[in-house]
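Sequence only, no structure available. Ideas?
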Amino acid sequence: MKKLLTILSAVGISATSASVVVSCSTKDGKGYQNIKSIESELSALVLTKTDKAWTIEDLQKEVDLKYGASELKVESITVDSTNDKKANIKISAVGKKFKGSVTIEHNFEAGASNSIDISTLSFNDNLYMEAEDLADLDKVLTAIQENSTSTESSNIDWTKLKIEAKEDGLYLVPNIDQTYSGSRKLNVQEKLKLSQLELQANVGFVTSNNYAIILDAFLEVNKTKISELGISAKTNYYVAVDANGKATITGNKNSKVVSSVDTLELTYEVQDKRVNLDEIEGLVNKVVLVQEPTTSTTAIRDAFFAANETTLKATDGLSEIKSSSDLFIKNSNWNKAEKTVIIEAKNTSTILKSTNGIKVTYSVDSPSNILDLSNSESGINFDIRPANGMNTFPTKDSKNGKKRPNKWSSPLEEFYKLNESKFKKFDIKNASDLQTEINPSSAKYSDNSTIENAPKEDDWICLTAKSDSTKIRGTFFIQYRIN
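Reply:
I predicted one. Tokens follow.
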């Protein structure tokens, strides 16, 4: 057996008679009484138990009752290595009445009451074992030790127990020692073997990035069998596909319900049901943006999806498309001068595919429901100040005359809070449409700015709408305010 619990003294200790030497010393000059002066009393107390050994906890309670709490401490109870019916008990003075320590010999006869009926112990019975481990009974016993939920189980000497296989199951029984009685039937549950499941499934389009659909299809085919065993999570499995397109399914080695011993080759058939994007009639090839994209094509892609969402979802096979995430635009297909892009389906999409892509022209409009920062000083509160729990900097700092905060909250959030009522008129619900720089020529602002990078009182803050924002545009400079 690889792993055994330590035998606690409560199980292995036997009980005793004591030979005692009484000290003649009394109190010293500091008022302490030598503990040896009460050695005979302590011996008599120990001898009140004659059928088995004391536990430290039980003896400590008796000592506290007789001499007061926190005066004497039962330090240790050690069974004699040559005589299991003898123990040495060390008691030390720790309070204000006594000093010193004494060791008392305890001779006792172990009686029937010292035995443990293992049939009454509580264990975590649902022990999940690899199938081949059931023949290796030592592993089962180790698993019982590791999974035991009984407080009494800590008193068991696991070296004196064994697993016995009977016709109706496995039992925990005494081995060479009669300290234990009875037996305990073990409910050892095998993990699900992958070989019990079907080995084929039909899947959609498969790429190196979406092997998970093979696993999804495999679980769908076997859902009845799997649900009967209470296994639902895909995390119980691994899936891999080699260069030749052969898939293997393996149990996650950390799973308590699916065996990782089996690795099966999965036969799968690809049924490509994706819709060809460039063959869908009625798609809009002209989209309108609220501002010119500068660094990202996301706004163009999202505008194309929004303009065609009804058409896409009405197309047979696309009812499940929920966002523009199946679409993309290559940077090389973005012609800023002509304001054109090529919209394509991502090669990992299980819903859409592209043969030639779709050429889309975009334009920029200026609707009235867009907040233009550069023309909106009227009504905009720009008195933003450092956060860090204060409205103004405390004075005096040897370095620069003013004490800076170590960090300050994002001016985006401060700016939004100050102008929340105005923002809400434009249906702007948070500051995520904004970005900022402190001193436009310096590095980008960071929420983790340290004291060295904190704004100085003459700094300017540049608030800019994100390039893909559909609700805010323009640039707004604010001088950082310190009162």
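The radius of gyration is 39 Å.
Hope that gets you unstuck.
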